[in-house]
Amino acid sequence: MSFLPVYNDIYTAHQTIQKYAHRTPVLTSTSINKIVGNSLFFKCENFQKVGAFKFRGACNAVFSLSEEDAKKGVATHSSGNHAAALALAAKMRGIAAHIVMPRTSPEIKKKAVAGYGAHITFCEPTLEARESTLAKVVEETRATEIHPYNNFHVIAGQGTAAKELIEGKRKFDIIIAPVGGGGLLSGTAISTKKLLPECKVIAAEPAGADDAFRSFRAGKLIPSVNPKTIADGLLTSLGERNFAIISEKVDDIVTVSEEKIVEAMRLIWERMKIIIEPSSAVPLAAILENKINVQNKKVGIILSGGNLDLGKLPF
């Protein structure tokens, strides 16, 4: 495993992506503050390009490639936001994107990735099929594989969201992010501990997909086995690089119930009038479930994205 990004890499990533990525707004809600008895500041990555924070990391990875490597294009396997993010970033740089997608991926996601001009190869919906198909594509095209989270430049790119949040709103006592593969959380932890060393970084994870929680407690990587949660963006197991950073820089990881995820998601839709996906609701769910003590604390929350099938709403 090669070396890990540090804050300077996030600073450089921010310089690289600011021409292409949105500086997303930070919103507050008086009514949600009343419910939780505290001040919450939401960094709205649901307003990022492709509707998720993933564009930051993909954009940094694509624009960090040398001219020689860029000519061969980029490749990944993904059924979700990373696929669309990588496809758009590659289109902006004028290079090819080769995306391996399970044939069972939602039609809306297939259309989004195709719409950004990516070359899609469909495979069976198993991790083994995804990895073997990607290996074949990389061998044929000699494209650079860009992993969705276990990648140096991707982690550095994801850390720019917390950097912007802290620069805009200054002091925080706690910053909370959801955790799946750990790209957003590891980047958030690097930025936060550099800019606000006293600020606690806490991750929230669905109880039905709690590999990060268990890995953090055990001090070693424990892969996810058959995870089940409505927060489909958080089904992946932690990456090695991500776990190394999280072990060192994250203060705690808590788990939340499916009921509270749905309640938090509905609360944000109703009170803030913005669309978020279930994964984004997990940090607020942790507060509603009293898993994190936020009394008299200034709290930042990263809303990771807003991509979901409106035909399958949980309310």
TrEMBL record:
Co-factor(s): Mn(2+); Mg(2+); pyridoxal 5'-phosphate; Ca(2+)
PROSITE patterns per the UniProt record, alphabetical: DEHYDRATASE_SER_THR
Keyword Lipid metabolism found: no
Membership in a protein family: Belongs to the serine/threonine dehydratase family.
UniProt key word Magnesium: yes
Record InterPro entries: Ser/Thr_deHydtase_PyrdxlP-BS, TrpB-like_PALP, TrpB-like_PALP_sf
Organism: Tangfeifania diversioriginum
A Pfam family it matches: PALP
Highest taxon of the lineage: Bacteria
Keywords assigned by UniProt, alphabetized: Lyase, Magnesium, Pyridoxal phosphate
Ranges where the Tryptophan synthase beta chain-like PALP domain occurs: 20-305
GO molecular function terms attached to this record: ATP binding; L-serine ammonia-lyase activity; magnesium ion binding; pyridoxal phosphate binding; serine racemase activity; threonine racemase activity
Protein name from the UniProt record: Threonine dehydratase
GO BP, sorted A to Z: D-serine biosynthetic process
